[in-house]
Please model this.
Amino acid sequence: MSLKLGVSWKRVIQWVAITAVVVFVGACFIRLMVWEDNYYREMEGSERDVIAKEAVVEKEIEPLIEEEPTEQEIYEYWVAPDRPRYLSIAKLNIYNRRIIPVGINPTGELATPNNIFDVGWYESSGKPGAGGTMLIDGHNGGPNVYGVFKFLPDLQIGDFITIERGDGLLFQYKIVENKAVLLDEADKYMATALRSPEPGRESLTLITCTGEWSDLRYTYLSRQFTRAVLVE
Model:
């Protein structure tokens, strides 16, 4: 009898211990779930929350138009008299490319036209004939076709860029600098790109992507900056 009672009591003690452990672990788990729920409710909308959401949202990329505008579409393109209308670079066989006003996109980067054959004029930069520095960007290509600025790196000091204004006046700029800047340094170089390379003289800066393509960053790893001054 004593043997049987001893075995029975051991089983009871084991059962009680196991039950206590299960209850303790369950309580901890429930408490952790409640704490985590309250924490993320409090953090909702914070910087950490935004970053976490952005990390799982795929980047939406607007498809580029790879079809050249027709002569009629180019001819009918209109802008205000004091704004840039067309860009031409004879050395690269670029003639009367439409200049589309652009601003800053939601990621804080300079926007580009949706058509790879158009170029974008940053509206907060200078205007032709106004004495400031005009900033114009363009694509070096799309998935299947070269873009308007594909061969921008081929330009040399002394080559010319022509801008036609909305009122038909032509402005010619002579290149004084043409360089590639690594992507990680390009943002800092923008301050230079927005200044004239010759103080007090009206200027123009062209920008495009160049260098190696990065699948990870989904962009080229350098930016080409072509800077020119107005020919008086």
